[in-house]
Amino acid sequence: MGLRNSYVLCMALMLSFSSINCIDITTILGQNPEFSTFNKYLTETKLAEQINAAKAVTILTIDNTDIAGLSGKSLDAVKTVIGTHIITDFYDEKKLFEAIGSHAELATLSPASGLAAKIYVALINEGEVAFGSAVAGSTFDAKLVRTVKTETGVLSVLQVSQPIVKVADSAPVNAAPEIVSGAAGNVASATASVVGEAPESEVAGAHAPAPSASSRTTFGFIGAVMAFASIFVAL
After folding, report:
1. How does this protein lie in the membrane (predicted)?
2. What tens digit of pLDDT does each residue of 101-118 get?
3. For the segment 54-98, what is each residue's pLDDT rounded down to a tens digit?
4. Which of the four pLDDT bands, split at 50, 70 and 90, describes residue 203?
5. What is the average pLDDT across 124-146?
6. Residue 168: what pLDDT?
7. Any bridge partners for residue 106, and if so which?
8. Cα atoms found within 13 Å of the Cα of residue 231, Cβ hemisphere only
9. 3-class secondary structure per residue, 83-123
């Protein structure tokens, strides 16, 4: 009898330890009503299933107000956007700061292909942590708001200010997201501004790119024509 009790106890302990790293993201986000829309999208796109099966994952959640722009979009478009908010590794605030400076591309669960499925983290303005798509020309507009929940090494839920990418409803899943530039109308280069440097749209007095050789040739020809015209008029 004692042997049987020991066996049952061992089985109970094994089951207990095996469930330690079990993630139930729907229940976790369900404790925060402000994330109910984001939570609903995770279920509808089946991203919740991938999160729950992960050994380590970071969720960049968005509140109901800031995610309202996805209303009415197709499920594929929603999954493309929401997928970029699921990083396939553990990043709490401390680890994010450690990642800043490494120029690392953070892989996500976005179904988009190539760089469109990856994001960067950077410091902008007065030391704010922000996220941007790894696609060239992206801006860092999705700012870190707060830590919602963390389980060291396993799960990190962070709130960000807005979607990292914006896609047209008709955009195919394997296409690069339609990146919208910042309020100033300037588009920052993700690869050039990651980590420790603000995107161009945040830097005062950013220099415009130098004209190409073809542009200089065109301007030189026009100048020569104008000079000859001036001489002819003077005669």
Report:
1. Lipid-anchor; GPI-anchor
2. 777 899 999 999 999 999
3. 999 999 999 999 999 999 999 999 999 999 999 999 999 999 988
4. very low
5. 94
6. 62
7. 119
8. 5
9. HCCEECCCCCHHHHHHHCCCCCCEEECCCCCHHHHEEEEEE
Q: Name the β-bridge partners of 37.
A: none
- pLDDT (0 to 100) of residue 101: 76
Contact status, residue 130 vs residue 188, Cβ threshold 8 Å: no
Q: What are phi and psi of 46, to 5 degrees?
A: 65, 15
* Class of CATH domain 2-202: mainly beta
Query: Any residues with CB less than 8 A from the CB of 190 and at least 6 apart, and which?
Result: 120, 132, 133, 134, 135, 136, 137, 138, 140, 199
Token reading at 109:
């669960």
Is 62:89 a contact under the CB 8 Å cutoff? no
Residue 8 tokens read as 């049952």
Residue type, 209: P
Q: Which residues contact 227 (CB under 8 A, 6 or more apart)?
A: none
The tokens describing 192, both together, are 């050039």
Cβ atoms of 103 and 195 within 8 Å: the answer is yes
Most confident of 20-34, 163-177, 206-220: 20-34
